[in-house]
Amino acid sequence: MGLAVALVLAIGLASTSNALIFGSPDTEPQTDRPEGFPYWEYVTQRRYEGPSVIYLGAGFALTARHVGMGEIFLEETIHAPNLRSKHTLLNEDGTAADAMIFELEGDENPPDWPLIPIAIHPPQPGEDVLLIGYGKVRDKVVEFEGDQRSEFAFLWSKKGEKRWATNRVSAGDITVTQENLMTKTFVFEFDEPFSAGATRHEAQAAVGDSGGGVFVKRDGEWKLAGLMVSVAGTLHSPENASSYGDRTHAADLTHYREEILRWTRAACANERDDDGDDLIDYPQDPGCDSAQDRNERDKWPLGGNSLRNAGIATLAIVLVLLVVGIRLQRDRQNKLQPTSDTEIPADD
User: Fold this and answer.
1) Residue pLDDT, tens place only, 75-129
2) Confidence class of residue 22 from pLDDT cuts 50, 70 and 90?
3) Which terminus of the chain, N or C, has less C-beta within 10 A?
């Protein structure tokens, strides 16, 4: 089955919803959200049934660059973006990727949720992933002529809804180019239900699905690993439809992790030892009052476990005592010296 060149979903801006398309009703999840998954509410959407956006915590959001920033829903409240906060993620060579972060205005007080963890290591071929996005559901099944035989495709419905699904990584470290954007991605394919390569809730992204989250579970902990940005379809499949063999490209956030942390995390949550005391972030570093604290340094030199700070404080005290001692010594010497005026006896 031939595959078309991957196209970044720039038309997601015009689309009113996103999509996760299942091959069969038997493979669709029977629950509204994945069991035991703690970040369901973090995946939200732009206002007016717009594309998906991921809330990272601490007032910052992540989405595809071609989607752009806008008002988003969190806890049934509309949160406006800070229009001066837009930042496009960059590749190592300085080129722009199809991913961006922005900060929310503080007027509505964004939810004080835990920070969403971002995977350190890239997803590997064969690794299962969890997909979450707002989207159109599977509508009619249509038949079309493929390269060598008749095949089936699934048309998209007009209305969308938030769905979750699964898939399995087929390849990684693939660069997707669209106009002036170059994005490091990993890929997963849409396999027939119950086939050897299919997952239990196998699904495919579709046009408009940009900004949806791709998660991996490692050592019992869910981590954000990707951001859905583009799809590749079969050469002969109809428009506004998905068919087996289609591929979804997700921006590999492990390539952009350091930049994301630098722009969205305070010093007490950036996974770095900013003050050199071998203690990292809240609550391990005593200089951090919370994960939002922008300074890891101890608030009082002797209040923490930092030997360096204690040494500096001790030296400062010694210097103060030395200066006071010198001044006292000078005052004592001045009192013992005779005055310059001497008395002269009167003549008889």
Assistant:
1) 989 999 999 999 999 999 999 999 999 999 987 788 989 999 999 999 999 999 9
2) confident
3) C
What are 312's two structure tokens?
């500096």
Q: Does residue 280 belong to any structural domain of this protein?
A: no
pTM to 2 decimal places: 0.76
CB 154 within 8 A of CB 243: yes
Q: Which amino acid is at 43?
A: V
Comparing CA positions, the residue from 128, 97, 131 lying closest to residue 252 is 97
* CATH code (residue 67): 2.40.10.120
Inter-residue contact 204 to 21 (CB < 8 Å): yes
Characterise 303 by phi-psi region: left (phi > 0), alpha (psi -120 to 50), beta (else). Answer: alpha
Q: pLDDT tens-digit profile of 189-207?
A: 999 988 998 999 998 887 6
What range does the domain containing 127 cover? 7-261
Q: State the total domains in the chain.
A: 1
**Does any domain span residue 88?**
yes
Are the C-beta atoms of 269 and 201 separated by less than 8 Å? no
pLDDT confidence band for 334 (50 / 70 / 90) = low
Euclidean distance between the first and final Cα of the chain, in Å?
A: 135
User: Is there a contact between 185 and 250 (Cβ–Cβ < 8 Å)?
Assistant: yes
In a domain, 23, yes or no: yes
**For 252-266, what is each residue's pLDDT tens digit?**
999 999 999 999 987
pLDDT surpassing 60 at residue 18: no
The answer to whether residue 296 is domain-embedded is: no
Please provide residue 322's backbone torsions phi and psi, each rounded to the nearest 5 degrees.
Answer: -65, -45
Tell me the C-alpha distance between 279 and 286, whole Å.
8
Q: Residue 130's closest CA among 68, 192, 42, 67?
A: 42
Note whether 304 and 313 are within 8 A (CB). no
Helix (H) or strand (E) holding 36, with range, is: none
